[in-house]
Amino acid sequence: MFDTDGDGLGEAEGVLGRTYRALTLGIVSVVLMIAFEATAVGTAMPIAARELDGLGLYAFAFSGYFTTSLLAMVVSGQWCDRSGPLPPLAAGIGGFAAGLVISGTAGSMWPFVLGRAVQGLGGGLVIVALYVVVGRAYPERLRPSVMAAFAASWVVPSIVGPLVSGTVTEQLGWRWVFLAIPVLVALPLAVMLPALRRTAEAPDPGREKEAPRPRIDGRRIWYAVALATGAALLQYAGQDLDLLSAVPAAAGLALLVPSALRLLPPGTFRAVRGLPTVVLMRGIAAGTFIAAESFIPLMLVTQRGLSATMAGLSLAGAGLTWALGSYVQARPRLAPVRERLAQAGMVLSAAAISGASLALVQSVPVWVVAVAWCAGGLGMGLVISTLSVLMLEQSAPEEAGANSAALQVSDALSNVLLVAAAGTVFAALGGGTVSATTDVTNGVTDHATTTAHPAAFAAVFLPAAALALAGAVIAARLRPKGHEPVRARTAL
Fold first, then answer.
1. DSSP 203
2. Dist CA 137 CA 10 (whole Å)
3. What is the structure's pLDDT at 8?
4. Residue 129, exposed/middle/buried by CB under 10 A (0-12, 13-18, 19+)?
């Protein structure tokens, strides 16, 4: 499978060839489950919170997921390095499904939030284990194609997920959105589990047989607990802008900063060449794009009078272009210039965020947002998949789990911090008072009582665009000094 004997066996085989087909379809099914959850559940969440009389806890349904996923990512990285990716992958899929069931059957808001937290544990375990499977099961030449397949798995959910979720919520109820997702992938996972098991349990080709298994580092687990707790405190503090909120904010920073310094590779925040910059760039790329995307629908509804459905559809094209960008970076001839692909992707992302902010000017046609976000999706497809490939390329086999966890922690932590910071600035500038009412039966929204100041949106978009542009400069340091891809050397 790994072509380690140099005989060239399977050299021309792709990710859907006989050797890899079942495995590829299996892990793509898992990504599809996560993608449908992310797109469909977000649509049903407001209705669920209202019916459970828990609008006051609405934000915790999101923060609970991200907070527990931070902890699970670190645990999964160590678990994978010690026991292989199958145990955390299986536990993660089970936990993710269990969380959906808990939320889908909740009778009040607190059990609903608990279910979301359980989902976060499962999701954090799964995403790191999937990266380790890719690193162990596929030769280096196929990894960019697998990352492209992951990106393509988000296309259909990003387009049809909100529409299907809205229809199911209106016709059958929000609970069925949560309860149906695990069922959708049960059959393909059962069929493909043998391939997942064979690959995950195969001997690690990069480790000597007599080498001892790495021990679980209890200190890293405690740092992960502190990181998750600090992130939760910062999110809680961001809900209010009074003096008392400074207390949990300070406590959150005191826990979060030293924990992040120890969980991420040394030199990450100094952009040291190689893996530290790869990890830092993942946070910059994901955080800036998601922070801006979180406020675009609200801007379109409050500033331009679009319906919630039309505002959401304005972003749907990014799913297609994201997959296209990931496909482009998978071309073998582009392997020697991966850092330039990442730079181009960050420039496109910065341009997209800036372009979307133009919709704050009433004379600018609103379709500019859709065009800009398609360009941003293309950029993100280039940069996110490229960073994943570079992380695996620069990781020793026995460190693949820990480094995959660091990449995902950087992603999730930056999402939490930048979205929370954007929300705080947005509220401070008077942009957060939106009292529009919606008739769920016919989808009609009354915007007459909506108040949001354009400057509040600009204060979110422009700093995000500037940080993304800074990321384009930092991306020049993605490879260690003097490092050259194997494929590029052999071509010479």
1. P
2. 13
3. 38
4. buried
| CA atoms 89, 94, 98, 104: torsion sign | positive
d(CA 298, CA 394): 40
* The token pair that represents 379 in the structure block: 């950029």
How far is CA 189 from its chain centroid? 22
CA 385 – CA 381 distance, rounded (Å): 6
Instruction: Compute CA distances 358 → 289, 379, 433, 457, whole Å.
Output: 16, 19, 22, 11
Tokens of 292: 């801006």
pTM score, whole prediction:
0.73
Q: What is the pLDDT of residues 269-286, one digit of tens each?
A: 998 999 999 999 999 998
Helix or strand holding residue 444 (H, E): strand 444-446
How far apart, in whole angstroms, are the C-alpha atoms of residue 150 and residue 375? Answer: 19
- The residue assigned the tokens 């393909």 is 188
Q: Which residues on neighbouring strands pair with residue 450, listed in sequence order?
A: 434
Q: What is the mean pLDDT of the chain?
A: 78
Tokens 């496909």 -> residue: 327
Instruction: Name the residue among 273, 465, 251 with its Cα closest to residue 350.
Output: 465
* Measured distance CA(9)–CA(20) in Å, rounded: 13
Q: What is the pLDDT of residues 363-382, one digit of tens each?
A: 889 899 999 999 999 999 99
Mean pLDDT on 229-252: 78
Query: What backbone phi and psi angles, to 5 degrees, belong to 16?
Result: -105, 15
Distance CA 131, CA 146 (A): 10
Q: Residue 90: name the closest of 180, 30, 151 by CA.
A: 30
Instruction: Specify the 3-state DSSP secondary structure of 326.
Output: helix
Coil, helix or strand for 480?
A: coil
